[in-house]
Structures
1.
Amino acid sequence: MAETPEANEQQQLCCMCNAPSTIICDICKCSRYCSTQCQKDDSTTHKLACNNYVKLAKVETTGKIDEEDKVGDPINCVYFPEEEGKPRFITARLEKVESSTGEPDRWLHFEASAEFELKDGQTVHSVDKFARNPVLDRQLTSTIMCLGRAKKNSKGKYKRIGSPNKAVTAIDPDLSTTFVGPLLFYSIDRCLDTNDFRHIIDYIGVCHWAMINRYHRKVNPPYRWVWAVQLHCEGDRFFVDKGDIEVAKANEAIVAGGELIETKTAIMCPVMEKLQLPIVFDSLGDTIVWRGRTVPGQYGNRVPATHNRSMTKISPGYYGINLGNVMAARKDKRPLLLGHIDAIALYCSTITDAIEFEGDPNDEVVMQVWAMQQEQHLLKKASKKGFLQFFASWMRSNHGKQFGTIPSPYNLKELDTYQPEETEEAEEAEESEGIEEAEDTKTTQETKKTKKNRKNKKNKKARKAKEKEEAKEAEEATSFGMGSLAI
């Protein structure tokens, strides 16, 4: 099909960021980069597909389909075999299938079902589709579809089946539990190339990240929600315009000596002892979405996208360690406010700024030595008294006023009654988690009772609001009548 100006412009961008490309791969002549650094960041992943793509005969698709045999042109697709340890490009033909709704849903299946090793009751089913790179938030030149092996469950819904996909695991071992069975990615409009392969890898990484994020937010008895603060890594800040920190809801297991705090994800932060604050930190992991990418650092250098700037302000010793996003919460399960973390980070920065940097910011050894010097200086100077004085002046500053009037992190009485404002993202995450649980697990009697009580309370609240409104209308009507009589 003919390329649109928009599509051509998209193809001229770096496949690792949204900067205009200046370099193209010498082998496949498809993958474009803005710098040698971005090309280096992508090298491990790109090698999985580059030579294979070149060996495959390049074909063109007109986007048309033969109405007589209902078979379309051959196209290049990206195939992730279930049992092979490497993804590869394959050529397949689209097949015209009549939609159950009567709509022209023509491009659903491939005549490559043999690749899926189907058994009784199994079918090749559409798993997902995406038209944007979720990491770069970039519109793609066409929608990329994904097919997988599936089977209907007792509820009549298709569910992917199979063993952990070894080809996906070749990208990163952490993906072994996220995708099962064979996967086939394709577009109905054109052949896929190595640029699309990068988009697919980003999509797979985001799917895994979403699953891990749900795990950290998931609440099972006897645990409940606690108000927490999420500290965003450089990838979130650079690619998706996240702020340094945001309000979040977290599983109280991270502060109750539960399943999360006992794992390697717990972050030790000795300065909290100096400040006498019961705050703990939990790493959400070296997020696969950003793994391997680097972004511009605050000192004119390049840093891993999984670097957490906010965390290194509070504990400089973590510079150079790929923490990813970090969740902070109070051990006593009281609300941890956004302003508290902001004030703590600024207080620590005012102390560590006394240690001036000398050397090359691109020298990792020099940067880590400097960070450890900052950490040692911070632990010598930080104190509860010093922070209380700083917090009082911070509250009066224009910067502090943007967080509103908030209680001191030491004022337990006010914290017990304080209710933080929930962000839209936290609400959406909670709602989506509820939907996931309803689909994937059988609802227990206790949960049903809780839902019923919640529904009754909601209906009762709605009735009271309606009665109050009716009473107000009646009062206004009476008042109007009395006024008329007076006239």
Note: The CA atoms of residues 164 and 177 lie 6 Å apart.
2.
Amino acid sequence: MPTTIEKLLGQRLGLKNIIDRFVSKIEEASDEVDDIHFQALIEKLEEKVACLRVYNENILSLTDADATPEEMVEADEYTFDVEVKLRR
């Protein structure tokens, strides 16, 4: 049976996959989709990124002290990359 942190890591991975799909849809559709559809995609993506931040905090709270710095860097890098893509 998976531990709490393993569950959170798995759920976070699924959320990252969803975020990546939304980013791809936005990149592909930016010229082809009306403003309402595009804005809805952006809002949904922002919701998912907010959820990701919560998962990151929960995972960090359960991570042992030795793995915490690496986990922090990984979480921040991914979130930063998504935010940069959103601003393009």
Note: The two ends are 42 Å apart (CA to CA).
3.
Amino acid sequence: MKGTEKQLTPTKCLDLNLMLLKLGPVFPLDVSSSTWINILYKGYISITVFFYLVLTASAPLYIFCRDYPLEVAIELISIFITQIRSGMNIVTFIIYKKEIQNLITSLYRNFYIHGTNLSAEESSVVREAMDHARSMTIGYVTLYSITGLSMILHPLTFKSTDLDQDDAFNHTEGPHRILPFKTWYPKWDTTKSPQYEIEYFVQATLTALEAWCVSCTDTFCVTLMIYAGCQFDLLGLALKNMNKNMKSDIGAHKKGTNASYPIQTLSLNNSTLPVIPEENEGKIRNNVSTSGRLKASDESTLQDKGWEDGYHVPPTVKSCMQVERETATYIKECIKHHQSVLVYVAEMNKCFSTLFFVLFMTASLLICLLGFQVIVKPPRGLMFVRVLLHWLCTVFELGFFCWYGSEVMHKSERVYQKAYDCAWQDLFSGAKQFIPVIIMRAQRPAAVRAGLFGNICLPTFGTLMKNAYSYLAILRQMHEGDGA
């Protein structure tokens, strides 16, 4: 069991995500205990934000200051939307740094309900959530890294035979001198050296940083959703197995008190009877050394006596009172944990609701524009791979958020069913009154929200994909009309 506890340490659930965030300019914690290192890291953030603003401003300048066909306009708009989305990721983690730190601390502090001694079923749930979060993080970051690499390498693999296709997508006025993205700045000619080399280096560096930051911030948000769902699963298991867990506690209590039963003497109507507590088939009873049952008058005499004159409460009464208190405490801890998870989801919405709103607001249009480049007029060579990967990243980003947002909703909704199925009829009267509290709170499921878009869930994903298809159909008709 100790090995399992070591493996399921809460601080390990975010170690991969935090390590990846530290490599980008979006790490929410202090990088080091050294003040100078933290100052250098802040400078790293400032430089990244500066170059991001410079590159983002170039797309509108190109749109207003140059002439271009429809295909070039679509590419410019898609790049500009991507820059806005990337900037929201970076700005969110900078502005809400303290709130994100509180989310991390709350996850570590409230990871378990009744201590780290987990059952096999609970350990399986936690381990599955950790493995799933790690696999998702590695796969998602890999996809974004390959996409960013394709954007950087595309100008280096450009061939003159592709000029007829690529002149509508990404090139400067000079022959064979293309950049990852179209840009225009006054009095800056990228057809000459060293202007071209300088801008290519800046664009390549910023592309790598943006791809890394977006993938790391997205996977961090999704990982928080995964662990929020895991907390609801643990809460449901704690309620479902409540009777079994409490019986094990009773058994442990009996085993601990089995060797210390005192021999007491009860006086019944001027008669002295030795009472010896003993255990028979797992049940504690008082063995009175006389035959026959107690009469009603004897029982009333016992009650009037009230265990006075130095007599102690028998172990059976102690056990019942202790189990009742432990049961009430057990349920109260479940209620507190349920409330802490609901507050945790609310804090997530406070931090990331605006980010999710911008991502979802621009998702349909970006999917439409990238789909137009892939389907209507596909480019050649590595440019096609770059656009296709960009489209896949956008769809997967939207799908991951909606999938795990639905998981949070469904798992939080299942808590009330687990609470109702916990055999509450067998509980003490004092403990029964706490079960309706859990049921009433769980009937309104927790949800991750995207601002005005509402809850992040699979129906939202379906709606956005339908909208993207509708926009693509309209854009394709416009293109065919211009061609005719």
Note: Residues 251-321 form one domain.
